[in-house]
Amino acid sequence: MKLNKIIKWGMVALIIISVALLIWGFSRGFEGNAVDVLLYWTYIMLGLAVFSWVVIGLIVSTKNNPKSLVKIGIAILGIAALCLVAYLLAKGNPAMAYNGPEVSGGTLKLTDTILNLTYITGGAAILAIIVGEIRMAIASKK
Length: 142
Known about the structure:
Number of strands: 0
Number of domains: 2
Order of helices and strands: HHHH
């Protein structure tokens, strides 16, 4: 069986599982365990995406251009550095006006880290759009 067919059927299986879990979540009203299951499925999908990006990227780039491994290594180090900066900036303070069960300090720190990553990447995306438009405007004048 070709690799393309394996990838195609793997994606179909993931889509079917995702839709089934979504329907199940709607039928349960997104309460209690349904939310936990959906969040765990999200973690699994994100893990598969990152794993696929890294592993398939390594395989393809090594096959096509062995020197591109340096670029991938730099990208991975950059992402790790970005996560470290977001972690170091995270305060881990409890949420204001939160009346639920007590949350551990580690969970608060991780939540703040994810929020910081969201702010940093969102700002970088907006900046990239602005810089890209400026560069296109300058290039079209020449």
